[in-house]
Amino acid sequence: MTYRGGMTTAPRHVSAALEVYVSAATELEMQVTVAKLPGLSMTEELKVTVDDKPAELEEIVGEHGSRIHRLNVESGLVVIDYSAIVTTPADPIPVSTTDRSTYLRPSRYAECDKFFGFAAGQFDTSLPPGELLNQVTDYVEDRLSYIPGASDPIDGAADTLLAGAGVCRDYAHLVVALLRALNIPARLVAVYAPGCDPMDFHAVAEAIIDDEWVAVDATRLAPRQSLVRISTGRDAADTAFLDNHRGTINLNYYKVMATVDGDLPTDTGRDRISIG
To answer: Pfam family of this protein, just one (predicted)?
Structure first.
């Protein structure tokens, strides 16, 4: 298995299937497709039907290649099927001039302004950012237990710290909040994660270290070298795989799959990995 920029070059196969029932007119927004970035080579197919009839989608391309697919539905059963084969990883995303400002600010689920005093007392702020990154990741891994259902969708990083448990988004939010409180810009990335168990949409953190975006995953559930970027944002409010505006929906079912050809990479957790 070979690597480019820390990422495996082995083909990765990803898919998502969702069934959503709309009982009152709504505007659906989906973020399930692989982010389109320079250097990426892939084939993909996205099919959406409403009551078995093909639906017309509006594609909105955001920052860092994130793609929102928007659909207005009066009522009925919406079925979403997406699959892609990534044959070449995207180039690492460069640090922009606005990133430091954007990703040091408190956000909905990563309320770093609540952590300034705590972080200063918990971590050695004299250390270089790369070592602080490892300290924060280790701390969150040790402090939290991965328990599906232990958190609510509205829980932020402070709630997660107090609860001591959560799922991948909760781990990522706490990592992001602590890093921002230590003056290290950080953000959340939604990914497909070959090797993740339990298999699901996955979330990891990214931090600026030595002028590059470095991925960290305090859950240790999947090797970072095989991750596939879906969307990027301040926190989960920006990266949700399904959202709706007005109306009423019910997510009846969803299934996510992600595999890599050959053996999974070995992730020591200390190598600097930049997701394309």
So the answer is: Transglut_core
